User: Fold this.
Amino acid sequence: MAKQGREFSGMRRVDLAYAQVASSEVARDMNRDIVLELIRAKQPVSRADLARLSGLQRSTVSEIVEDLMREDWVREGSIARRPRGRRPTMLGLNEDLVILAVDVHPRQAIVAVVDLNGHFLSRDVVTIASNPERAIQQMVDSMRKLREKHSGKSFEGIGISLPGRVDAETQRLVFAPNMAPNLKWSSVDIRGTVEKTMGLKVEIDNAANAWLLSEMWFGKMDGVRHAVLVTIAEGVGTGILANGQPVYGKNGMAGEFGHIVMDPQGPQCACGARGCWETFASSNAALRYFAERKPRNAEIGITELHALAEEGDKDAVAALTEQAKHIGRGLRMVTASLSPEVIFIAGDITQAWRVVGPVIEAEMKATLLAGSTPRLMPSEEGGLARLRGASALVLQRHSGKRHSRDVPARGKPARPAIRKKNTR
Assistant:
């Protein structure tokens, strides 16, 4: 049996470092996942090489490849030159199959068209209203524009990364304190609304989970079994990988370290409590530290603060150092709770890693319970990883098996289970 795969809402993310061949009929989907992952990682690759790398029978590989080609995930390409014998046809992912990815922030959304290899074909930045219904419409308008721009492509679905927790069962946003909570985003069916309007299947998840998925799918995490990704932006979020599996918890609320109280007398948090970790460690906290030092200074954003620190401004450096200390202290809590091999730091803070990285690491190591500290790694792609993560939500959840949930296009019958070319 294939062991230690990674599961994402019905589709296992196979870690090649631990993949073993599945032999039962029940494990057919695992074999398919292994083959698709090998094609993604090794492309261009021949059927014979897939059989050799996976340990599967050539007939099994050929059957899986035919399924993947029929469903448009995989495409034949060049013919390899060999000194003798039959020249094999090489396989790769279908670059004409694309995904609409949406990364939502409290005040703006980034919409992109992403192919199966994680390449961005187009991007659009949309300022969104605080009202949920209006914000969704603005995002849909952007999606329509990009879809029309790439009308020659086939769109598999839509992935949406959200700054809050998503219930895996209901696929509703259940906790988003930075998204104008008084306007009840949790009562809005984001997925259902977008699906009905766009006529494409929609997958949504928390931004930290999507970012971790991006590191797993497009990054270099093969062999890593225990990891935490911490996002530092308007708030502090975490995505968790334990024993090779993502951890969601009841109602999708696992990993809300940002709302663990560090000081009951601390600043008011958007969640209603006082002194949560994110009130000390977020980008907003860094801006507050700077404002306390320069109260008469014109209001600046986090990018400007990072630029001042790089230029040597002592108050900017001091503000970011204070933020970094609080990040490191919170990571002690994360390490003691989960004991990860790797902690990824993602988001705004990575722009100033030269200033903050050593401070965070020193604070994290200050009170180690036992063993060695986790490796601390800044995510290198900034916000692009959240977009890639949003696209990977679709890739992971759709590619492992045929669609089990039909989505009606506008006023038309539901699409067939096996996808046909879709140029709109």
About this structure: The longest strand covers residues 154-162. Residues 1-12, 402-424 have pLDDT under 50 and may be disordered. The two ends are 40 Å apart (CA to CA). Residues 164 and 341 are 25 Å apart (CA to CA).
